[in-house]
Structure formats: C-alpha cells, structure tokens
C-alpha cells in the first residue's frame, strides 16, 4: 500500500513516479456553464508535465467540456461562462480568466479532435498552418519545422514525397496523424486529444496510441477517451468524471487496480456508462 | 357477415380511388406547367427570332457594330447592345463583388447573432424594392451625386445605373455566398482556432478557400441578375446604342432596347418587333449560361462537403 | 500529501510570453479593422435603403394629396394622379393571385408530396429552378408572343395578370416546398395509420400546417409582381389611361362581370416609369409620389412576410 494515497479526496493525488513530477497546470475550483446549465462542478486537479493524463467517464460526464476549457474552445460558443482557475505554469497565468486572450492560450496549448479535420490544403500547408498564422514566413524555418512535426507524428516517411498533395486525400489514420503533426508543429506546451481514435479502425488506433505513448516525456498530453483500455494503455494518470464532477484522480495503474471510490469501480467493471 | 362488410367498404374505396387520381392529375398538371412555360419561352423566342434571321443574317447580327433599327438604312448588329449590357453588368459587379463578399464574411463569421438577426431583414427589404424605384434613384439621386466628382457626367450614363444595380444585387450575392460559407464544416474552424488563428485568419485562410466554388457561384448568379436587369438601365442609362467601354457615356443595354421598342408602336410581325425577340434570345442565353456555370460550381461545392 | 503549492521553477523565459502577447495583439488589430469594414459594408445596404426613401419623400411627399389618388394622368403635372394606375394594379394582381397562387401551390404540393423519384420529376425541378433565373423581361417577351398575339388576349389586364402569375411561380413553389418539408413525417404517418388517403393527409394535415410558410412565399411573390415593370412594358401596357376598366361587380344579375379582363391597363410602376422618363421636375415629383406609394406597398408586404417567417422560426415545436 502506497502511503501517498492516504487522502480520500479526489483532488491532487500523488503520482507513483519516483521523482516528484512538476505540475504543468493546476485546475482550481473550476465551474463551467452553458447558459444556466452547469456542466463542470468544482473541479480541482493537477496536470503533470511531460505525462499523459486521461479523462474518462460515461458520455455527458463533462470530460470533453473540461478538455475544451484548456484551450478556451468554449469561447467560440455564445452564453458560456468559466468560473475558477486553470493555472498554467511556469508563468502562473489563469488561462480561463477573461483577461487572458484565448488566442494566446491556443498558441500555447494545441488540440487534436475527435474526427480528423485536415484543411482542404496540401499536407505541407496543413502542418505549416499554425506557424503561418503566427507570421512565420521563412521558407527554411517552415520546412524544418514541418519535417520535424511530421516525424514527430510518425508520418514523414509516408508523405515526404507528396507534401503538395491535399491532406484530405490521406487515409483516416494518416489524416489524424496529420492533425497531430499540425498540433505538434507549433511546439505547444500541452496537446489536448479529444477522443482521437473514435473515428478510426483498430490498426490506425494502435498507431495513434503508440504515438501518444512516445510523446510522453517530451510534451504534456491530456486525452479524453471513452475507451477504458485505451486510457490504461496510454496514460500515466487517469481522472474519472461523472455528472460534471471529478470522482477520482490518480496514477493510472492505481486507479484501475485499486479504485478508492465505489462509482469508479462500478464504472470500471461495466456496471454503468 | 364478412361479405356484407366488404360490400360496404368497396364502393367507398372505389370512389376514393377515383378522387385520388383526379387530384393527383391536377397537381401533376400544375407542376408540369413549369416545363410548359420553359418550352413556351424557348419556342416563342426561337420562332420570332427565326423570322428575324430570315431578314438579317446571323453573321451581320453578331459582327455588325451598329444597331440602328429605326434608321432608313436599318442595321442590326448586337455588339453595341451587348457592349452596353456588359458595361452595366461590369460596373455592377465591381460594386457588388467586394461589397457582397464583405457582407457575407461579416454576417457569416464576424457579426454577433443579434447584429446578424437585425441586419438581415433590412437586406431582404432592400431586395424587395421595385426596380423602377431604383431607376428613379439612379437617375435623380446617384447621377447628380456623381456629378460632384465627375462634373461633365451626362444625365444619362452607364456608371450610375451600374452602381445602383450593384447595390441592388448585394443582398442576393451576399446571401448565396453566406450559404456557401456556412456550409463549411465547423470542425475546420475549430481546427484553425485551435492552432491559435484569429477570426480574420480563420476566415481568410480556411473558410474562404473552402467555400471558393460556392462564392464564385454567387458571383455568377450576380452577373446573371445584373445582365437581366431592365428598368434601372432603361431609365438612367439612356436608350442610345453606343459601342463604348467608357461607363461615363450613355448606352443602351439589350433589356433597355426591348423596353424602348415595346414603348413605341411597332406592328406585329415587323422586323423591329422581331428584333426584340432576337435580343431577348441573346439575353436568355447569357443569363442561362451563367446560371448553369453557377449550378455546376455549387454541385462541386456540395460534393466536397 | 497533495502538492497544492505551485511549482516555482520558471523554465520558459518571461520574454517568450511577452513576445507571444505582442504577436496576438498585432493580429487582433486586424480582426477589429476587418469587423469594422464588414459592418460598414453591410450598412451600405441599409444606408441606401434610407437614402432612397428619404429622396423619394423629399421629392414627392407634397404631391400625396387625396386628389393624387383620385385623378387620371394628365398633361399637366400638377393635375395628374394615379387613379387608373392603382386600380390597374389591383385588377392585375387579382388575376395574378387567382391564377398564380393555386398553380404554384399545387405544383409545390405535387413536387413535395406526390412526385415519384424519376426523370419526369427531375425535369420539372430543373425547369422550376431555371424559371427562377429567367430575367423578368423575357417573361414579357413570352407573354407578348403567346398571350397577346398567339392566344389573342390583346394588351389586356388578363395578359398582364397571367404574365406576372408565371413570373412569380418559382418563388411560391420554392416557399411551398420548404413549408411542407418542415412538417415532420410522424404527422403524416399518424394520419395514414388511421386510413387516410394521400389527398386527405395532404388536405387535412400537411396544408394547414404549411399555410404560414406558404403565405410568406405568396406575399413575397405578390410584392414582387406589384413592383414589376419590365414585362408589362413589353406586352404593351399603356402609359396614359384616362378611364377605368369596367367594374368587376355590377348592379344587375349575375352581379359579376369579366369585361375588365380584356381592358387596356396601366399599373403603378408603369405610371412612375412614364413620369420619370419625362423631362421636368414637375413630373419627377409625380414619379416620386408614385414611388412612395409603391415602396410603402412592397415594403409593408415584404416586412410582413419577413415578420411572419421570423414568427414561424420562433414557434418550431416539432
């Protein structure tokens, strides 16, 4: 029995890692509202740097809503409101504060979506998009970073000879890796994945999962998944959410083998959700 | 027992069946009248034009640079009328393309819901104003206004009605382009914002390229509208055929010529009477051409999404 | 214990963040500029509408006296009026509505409720959308060749009304189809389930629910017809009419008369066109006054239709 998980509260568990991991972002008393509907209730948790954190729970539990708070995607929908804080380190800025420009947040935290959504542009331009909107025009810098991002997304070898072809012509799995390359290209501090394999076949899913595992250690990843096995395979930490609340949060192997909350074990054993 | 029930129902079913068939036949006839009207348009234009082309060679019609049906030595070259039409439509497009595009971009991507809901009814009202009123506006408001900038502008000119037609078709061009922009899937906008793009960057780099064929289709439909527009040019552009590319000069369009002839008293069957059908045929071909182009572009656009 | 205290390590230089913020601020500026230009472009339409209306009012409102509505056109501008024009508009609209509305609504009902998916239907649909694209003056040429001469209706109210009825057909067909399409299938199925025939379902369920939507299209179509000038000029509307057609109602049985159908006519927009084409500000004032009448008429109709549609959208309860 680990002494570090003596606390029963879901907030801020201790990781199992030997060295004390750095906190990349801490969520403090976060509430989120769609109009009058409260979708997130008083969430408090830490996201650890260079680790993969999975958000699981039955559909409608608020896991995607929480993920979208991180890069302020909700700002695109009218009548939404954040309360509380998501602090991003090292500069300790509250990224859900109305004073912070969502564009600034999105430049630091990028996102990969449920369905592959490449732009109807060439493979090269898809990856270079985030760099171009920042105003980077130097061809050599773009070339270098596009190649690095495509290598990072394990796509380079497959597409290096046809960078001018449209991104939409790739297969589903390749499209999703292209979207990962697009998210990687801007060297983000955190990458958000919103059920990235739900539209893919098993082989493509495996390749995306391998990619996410290989990313940990270099970049902070937060991933929403409806697939518990996927969370177990790719993540270092897992948070279980239910009805807009954070029920339990801890190192993945502990949460899966020794859940402390009844609702967590019910969900893991398939009694609901 | 069973047989009596059946005999009660059967005559009613039969009666019903007959009524159903009659109703369906009536409804079908109404719908099929659309085909009949189109056919009638084509037949009337072709028959009367055929009479015209018996007297005027098609080569002369298409190449002669003079249109003087009322002169003793009448000449029927469509080029001056075509030129006036193209000129008026060109001026209209120079106004309507940027304005319509900006309005569509603004309403589709920038305007808050409340602003959009307030402005759109006004644009629809603008579409509902009768063209004869726009003609008055062009002749007696816009032309005097333009004289402040171009002092020697004649009272009749192509510039003023061109501008007015342009403003007139802005709501149409804007609403068709806006439809195209709204058809761009939101997932692409989200992807762009997630890369840290601003609203303008998302609009110009993602939405517009993705909607290009739909937007171009809107311009084509705008051209078709501007080409077929009649009263504004008939009132404000003068009705003198003029082979010129200077919009400050007066010129007659195909439509204005038809109005001019119809106002006079040309006897049925005369060459002047037939000439308006030949002119109308050219007009129909031009507008249908642009409409077909627009249709093809929109089909391509719909296939993409 | 839980590490609630924020870590103190600062790996990324603060300068990086400042640079980022400058970058965002620079790009944000263009957003604001573009939004302002967009709003400006959008308001050009609204400003034009206002300018047009104010211009008409200033030029013509002093002519809007009761006599103006009760006088025939005249060689003397200050004695001219729009009596024959507005009576003509009313009578032409009567024909247009009586022919155009049932024809178009039936066509819409057929295409939406009855039409099988085959090449005939496809042909009809292509033709309806083509007709919407045909310039109005071409309808005038059709009417001139077909109604005026081939069918020998002459340059009459009947010819005019039929021309406009054909012209507004696509508008009403499209509106009818949209209104019908918005009715959920469950309602039809419920009616079929109790043994109703297709026509009974259409008449008792589909049409009543679709009426507000159809009405929107009908009003917009008629407003378009009221303002339309070109096709009526083409079929030879007269511009100087100092008499009224025979009244449609008589004091002797059978109390209705259709002689007016064959009468020559003028309508409001043609009267306005005639006045605006004459030199001299006196007649231009008459044109402006007639313009006010037309604009008010069409704007009220269009405004009502837009309002009706807005109400419809608010009230979606399916």
What does it look like?
The complex is a heterotrimer of chains A (about 270), B (about 300) and C (about 325). In chain A, helix 3 crosses helix 4, helix 3 packs parallel to helix 6 and helix 6 runs parallel beside helix 7. Chain A is of the alpha/beta class. Chain A starts with about 20 loop residues before the first strand and ends in a 5-residue tail after the last helix. Chain A contains ten helices and ten strands. In chain A, the strands form two sheets. In chain A, strands 6-7-8-3-9-10 form a six-stranded mixed beta sheet, sandwiched between helices. Chain A has a single domain, classed as 3-Layer(aba) Sandwich (Rossmann fold). Chain B has about 300 residues and is mainly alpha-helical. In chain B, helix 1 crosses helix 11, helix 6 crosses helix 8 and helix 8 runs antiparallel to helix 11. The radius of gyration of chain B is 26 Å and the shape is globular. The model of chain B has no long low-confidence stretch (mean pLDDT about 85). Chain C has about 325 residues and is mainly alpha-helical. Chain C folds into two domains: about 45 residues; about 250 residues, MetI-like fold. In chain C, helix 3 runs antiparallel to helix 8. Chain C starts with 13 loop residues before the first helix and ends with a helix. The N terminus of chain C is likely disordered. Chains in contact: A-B, A-C, B-C. At the A-B interface, helix 2, helix 3 and helix 6 of A face helix 7 and helix 8 of B.
């Amino acid at each position: 029995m680990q002494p570090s998980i003596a606390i029963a509260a879901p907030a801020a568990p201790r990781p199992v890692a030997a060295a004390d991991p750095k906190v990349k972002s801490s969520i403090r008393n976060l509430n989120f509202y769609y109009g009058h509907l409260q979708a997130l209730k008083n969430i408090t948790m830490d996201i650890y740097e260079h680790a993969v954190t999975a958000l699981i729970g039955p559909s409608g539990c608020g896991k995607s809503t929480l993920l979208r708070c991180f890069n302020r995607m909700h700002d695109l929908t009218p009548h939404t409101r954040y309360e509380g804080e998501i602090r991003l380190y090292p500069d300790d800025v509250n990224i859900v504060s109305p004073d912070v420009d969502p564009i600034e947040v999105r430049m630091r935290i990028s996102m990969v979506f449920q369905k592959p959504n490449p732009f109807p542009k060439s493979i090269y331009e898809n990856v270079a998009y985030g760099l171009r909107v920042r105003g980077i025009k130097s061809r050599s810098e773009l070339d270098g970073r596009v190649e690095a991002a495509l290598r990072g997304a394990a796509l380079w070898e497959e597409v290096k000879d046809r960078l001018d072809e449209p991104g939409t012509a790739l297969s589903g799995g390749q499209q999703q890796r292209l979207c990962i390359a697009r998210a990687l290209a801007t060297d983000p501090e955190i990458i958000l994945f919103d059920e990235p394999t739900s539209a893919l076949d098993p082989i493509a899913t495996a390749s995306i999962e391998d990619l996410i595992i290989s990313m940990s250690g270099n970049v902070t990843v937060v991933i929403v998944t409806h697939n518990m096995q996927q969370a177990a395979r790719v993540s270092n930490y897992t948070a279980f959410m239910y009805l807009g609340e954070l029920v339990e949060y801890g190192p993945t192997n502990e949460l899966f083998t020794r859940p402390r909350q009844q609702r967590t074990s019910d969900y893991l054993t398939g009694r609901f959700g | 027992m069973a047989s009596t029930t059946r005999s009660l129902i059967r005559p009613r079913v039969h009666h019903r069946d007959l009524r159903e068939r009659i109703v369906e036949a009536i409804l079908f006839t109404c719908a099929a009248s659309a085909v009949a009207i189109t056919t009638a348009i084509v037949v009337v234009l072709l028959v009367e034009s055929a009479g015209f082309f018996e007297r005027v060679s098609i080569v002369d019609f298409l190449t002669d640079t003079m249109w003087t049906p009322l002169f003793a030595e009448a000449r029927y070259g469509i080029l001056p009328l075509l030129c006036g039409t193209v000129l008026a439509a060109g001026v209209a497009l120079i106004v309507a393309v940027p304005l319509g595009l900006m309005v569509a971009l603004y309403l589709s991507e920038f305007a808050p819901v409340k602003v959009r809901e307030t402005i759109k009814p006004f644009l629809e009202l603008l579409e509902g104003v009768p063209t004869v009123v726009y003609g008055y506006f062009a002749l007696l408001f816009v032309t005097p206004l333009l004289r402040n900038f171009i002092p020697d502008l004649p009272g009749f000119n192509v510039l003023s009605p061109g501008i007015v037609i342009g403003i007139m078709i802005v709501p149409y061009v804007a609403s068709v382009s806006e439809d195209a922009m709204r058809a761009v899937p939101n997932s692409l906008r989200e992807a762009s914002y997630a890369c840290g793009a601003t609203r303008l960057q998302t609009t110009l780099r993602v939405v517009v390229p993705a909607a290009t064929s739909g937007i171009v289709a809107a311009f084509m439909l705008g051209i078709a509208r501007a080409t077929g527009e009649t009263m504004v040019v008939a009132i404000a552009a003068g009705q003198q055929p003029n082979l010129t590319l200077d919009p400050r000069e007066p010129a007659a369009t195909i439509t204005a010529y038809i109005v001019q002839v119809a106002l006079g008293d040309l006897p049925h069957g005369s060459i002047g009477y037939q000439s308006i059908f030949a002119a109308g045929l050219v007009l129909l071909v031009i507008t249908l051409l642009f409409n077909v182009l627009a249709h093809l572009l929109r089909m391509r656009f719909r296939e993409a999404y | 214990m839980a590490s609630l205290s924020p870590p103190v390590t600062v790996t990324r230089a603060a300068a990086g963040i400042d640079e980022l913020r400058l970058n965002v601020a620079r790009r944000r500026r263009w957003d604001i500029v573009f939004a302002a230009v967009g709003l400006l472009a959008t308001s050009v339409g609204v400003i034009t509408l206002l300018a047009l209306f104010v211009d008409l009012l200033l030029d013509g409102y002093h002519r809007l006296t009761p006599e103006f509505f009760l006088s025939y056109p005249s060689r003397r501008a200050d004695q001219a009026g729009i009596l024959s024009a507005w009576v003509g508009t009313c009578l032409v609209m009567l024909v247009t509505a009586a022919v155009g509305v049932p024809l178009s609504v039936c066509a819409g009902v057929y295409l939406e409720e009855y039409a099988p998916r085959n090449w005939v239907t496809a042909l009809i649909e292509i033709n309806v959308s083509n007709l919407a694209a045909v310039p109005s003056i071409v309808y005038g040429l059709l009417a001139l060749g077909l109604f005026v001469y081939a069918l020998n209706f002459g340059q009459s109210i009947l010819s005019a009304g039929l021309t406009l009825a054909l012209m507004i057909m696509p508008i009403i067909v499209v509106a009818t189809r949209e209104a019908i399409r918005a009715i959920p299938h469950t309602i039809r199925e419920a009616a079929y389930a109790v043994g109703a025939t297709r026509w009974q379902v259409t008449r008792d369920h589909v049409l009543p629910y679709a009426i507000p939507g159809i009405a929107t299209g009908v009003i917009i179509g008629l407003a378009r017809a009221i303002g339309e000038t070109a096709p009526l000029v083409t079929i030879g509307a007269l511009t100087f009419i100092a008499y009224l057609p025979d009244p449609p109602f008589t004091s002797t049985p059978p109390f209705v008369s259709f002689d007016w159908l064959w009468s020559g006519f003028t309508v409001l927009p043609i009267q306005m066109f005639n006045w605006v084409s004459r030199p001299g500000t006196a007649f231009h004032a008459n044109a402006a006054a007639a313009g006010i009448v037309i604009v008010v008429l069409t704007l009220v109709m269009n405004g009502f239709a837009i309002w009706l549609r807005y109400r419809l959208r608010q009230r979606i309860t399916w």
